[in-house]
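Re: beginner question about structure tokens

> Can someone show what the tokenized structure looks like for a real chain? I only ever see the sequence side.

Sure, here's an example I had lying around. Input first:
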Amino acid sequence: MDADDFPTPEEPVDAITPEELRRRIEDGKEVTILDTRASGDFEEWHIEGESVEIENVPYFEFLDGVDEELLEDVPVGEPVVVLCAKGGASEYVAGTLAEEGREVVHLEDGMNGWASIYESVEVENYDGPGTLVQYQRPSSGCLGYMVYDDDEAAVIDPLQAFTDRYLDDAADLGVELTYAFDTHIHADHVSGVRALDEEGVTGVIPEEAVDRGVTYADELQTAADGDTFEVGEVTIETLYTPGHTSGMTSYLVGESFLATGDGLFVESVARPDLEEGDDGAPDAARQLYETLQERVLELPDDVIVGGAHTSDAAEPAADGTYTAPLGDLREEMDPLTYDEAEFVETVLEDMPPRPANYEDIIATNLGQRETDEEEAFTLELGPNNCAASQGSMTSD
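And the corresponding structure tokens:
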């Protein structure tokens, strides 16, 4: 059933915005959720958090009325947040529960609304020229960055679905968005580099990624190891860091911040199987080990690290960003101290399921298929799963 097909409940039900729900979860307030999507959709992707209690009862079980047995499956909260995919089914279910005396609200626009949250937080420990902000998409864990100085700005790992957001943010700051960088051919989100390039921003992709079959390489600028780009007084240096993919490339911003893409996260290291599959994963893991030991860990301890994704296992820094000094990661992430054999064994033993729709997303990012912003948004629904482990690799 489409959202518009559900009758308006006789009992009025208040809505909660996705932004308000996120604030409650971030503040550690107890949140009780009734997810009314199909069980398969729920298992693949749902809202999580330390203070979240969530149950899944598909909406169609409420279509023939509510009996005592069904009510026993519905959690009790003050209130219960009822959600679905787009908001129509949840309003209907919440109404039926309100008629039974339950305290309920429904999530405005459902999980699509949750996936629309895209916030920017300043990286306060950044010590280079200009200002650096981290974009956060809690529904998928996708992270991106904007650095701006004087009258110029650049974004790193933008999403196609939020193309207008970057342009609007730059306009609000009174700066011109001059560059859009990709760290690699992403498997979990549709890149916004080409869309921004079409808007007059110079799109930049790693030179080492071109050999994977990028069809549009001649239309954009490429970044080779050691290349530099200027944004106001900020120098962005290209650092080739293969392992997660053969073309994985990091960007050292203002000699103070390393945008590592999917090579190194604050809670884990990269998974190595999304380009060549299981057969190629051991070789990629060995390449990742070499990259981390000989390239990344050679940087100063006070360089701030920020990946292109985060997970529920990650702890935010004091400023609310998912960043950490390299020295802290060196001390706290045990795999960074392993020898090669132990490292490879560790990253291969606990890999999560591959990202949803990753084959279509890779093909899109290679230019082998086309998509618009609406389809890009849909393809990205669900967790990113680009880390090598399902839990944190850092010690307390």
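Each token stands for a local structural state, so reading them left to right follows the chain. The first helix runs from residue 18 to 26.
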